[in-house]
Every structure is written in structure tokens, then in C-alpha cells.
Amino acid sequence: MGKGKGGCIGLGGGEGMLFSGELGVLSKELEGCDASILTDSTKKNSSEKIASPNQTVRGYEVIDKAKKSLENTCPSTVSCANIITLATRDAIALVGKPNYTVPTGRRDGLGSNPANANLPGPGICVSKALQFFNAKGMDLNEMVTLLSAHTVGFAHYFFFSNRLSNFRGFGVPDPSMDPTLVAKFNKTSALNVSATIDWELALDSSTANIVFGFASNGIRFQNNFAKAMVKLGNIEVLVGKAGEIRKNCRVSILPIKRNQLGPFEKLN
């Protein structure tokens, strides 16, 4: 199993940030990194690409370009799932973050389902977020690390609007926010406001020490981030004879639904 360097794997220069600020997590979270988010909807099957949590994902054309180049050089060799994983790593390195080594060998999923995009939103509380990450075999430290990763990219207004006007459904701004900052919102085109989960990570007794530890030691955060990303990319992936290697990342060669597959294998 390769390590993402040499042969057909090399993608050359980076193409910039591929998706939204949740790049790696969005594409890998619920059922492993199998590139199911890349497939387009058909008359018989809707893709998870159209699911609400994925509406802000962008940059599919970058993956298409990389896949076309690889197919011209070494047909049916590099999966779309590997392209996502390697491109994520390269995009992170391009913005000055750690350039880590990731294992390859992933294969592409045989279909896509919008229900699989049931990802935790930015308004989730710490305890619920931890349950979600624990279910995937990730611990508290890894959760805080990955939830901090969306500092790369941007966030749409609706991800934090509840903190400005309807916090927890009470029709008022988040009382922990500076009232002056809230009042200035309508006078500016950009605002440095964090999502609810960000703020709660800094306030919750179980996560506050981790957050402030990362804030005071950037190297520590980057090292933890690299390890967490590698672990995330190894969760419930398809390897061996499972899945397929698509020739076009938008089209599954064998349109079989995910729930028809057997248990997922894991990378070594």
C-alpha cells in the first residue's frame, strides 16, 4: 500500500482549496472516505451532493481535472477517494499547515445517498458532538482538533446567524457575545463571528483546556491535526475488491446502493 508519493499518485502542484472550510471532514465523515459525495444524481438515484449539509461544497471541477489527468496516464489505477484525500492534504499544506503523509489504497463507493450526509451542524452542543465522534472511534482531543479545522476557508451566514438574533430559539443574541459587535453586524460585509460549537468548545469544562492549549501552541495543534486527519481518512474505507475505481468521479460504474455492501474494511 502506497503512501501517496510517486508513480501515478503524484498530482503535481496544488489546485487550491477544494471544498468549503470543512473540506476533509465533509467528504469523509459519516461512512468513510469513498468519494460518494462526488457522484451526480440520476433519474433513479439522488446523490448526497444535493443534501443540505453539502450545499456549500465546491471545487468538484478540480477533482475532475485531476482524475482526467490520472486516467490519461494510468487508467483505472487511482480512485477518486484517494484523489480527495491527497488533494485535502496538499490544500492544507498550501495554506501553510502541516504536510503529512497519508496511506492510499482506498476504493470508490458504489453509489450515493443523501441520507448519508446527516452530519452534525455548527449548532450542536459539545456532548452531542462527542457522541458522534466517539461512534467513529475518535476521542475528545481529536474532536476538538478537527472541529477547529474549519478555520481554513469561510462560513456562510446561516451557520452562525442564530448567535446574532435567535440563540437557542429564544429570539435574542447569544448573551456571551459583545453587544457592540452584534450591533455592528449590519454595517459590515464581513464579520469575525464563530459558530456556536466553536464558542462552546472554549467554554465547556471538558474541552476548554484543549482549546486554549492549541491557541498557545500552534505547533502542537498542527501535529495533532495531522494525526487526526490521517485517522479520519482511515475510517470505514473500501479496500481490496470492495467498491470500484471510477473512470469519472461523477459516475459510478456499478450503480449499487451502499446498503448492499458488506462490512467496510480498514486501511492497514
From TrEMBL:
UniProt entry tagged with the keyword Metal-binding: yes
Binding-site residues for substrate, renumbered to this chain: P120
Gene Ontology biological process terms in this record: hydrogen peroxide catabolic process; response to oxidative stress
Transmembrane segments: none
SUPFAM superfamilies: Heme-dependent peroxidases
Keyword annotations: Calcium, Disulfide bond, Heme, Hydrogen peroxide, Iron, Metal-binding, Oxidoreductase, Peroxidase, Secreted
Binding site for Ca(2+) 1: G32, D34, S36, E48
Residues of the Plant heme peroxidase family profile domain: 30-253
EC identifiers of the protein: 1.11.1.7
Pfam families the record matches: peroxidase (PF00141)
Cofactor: binding details: Binds 2 calcium ions per subunit. Binds 1 heme b (iron(II)-protoporphyrin IX) group per subunit.
InterPro entries on file: Haem_peroxidase, Haem_peroxidase_sf, Peroxidase_pln, Peroxidases_heam-ligand_BS, Secretory_peroxidase
Cofactor(s) this protein cannot do without: Ca(2+); heme b
Residues that hold heme b according to the record: H150
Superkingdom of origin: Eukaryota
Binding annotation for Ca(2+) 2: T151
Reactions accelerated catalytically: 2 a phenolic donor + H2O2 = 2 a phenolic radical donor + 2 H2O
Family (UniProt): Belongs to the peroxidase family. Ascorbate peroxidase subfamily.
Name of this chain's protein: peroxidase
Lineage: Eukaryota, Viridiplantae, Streptophyta, Embryophyta, Tracheophyta
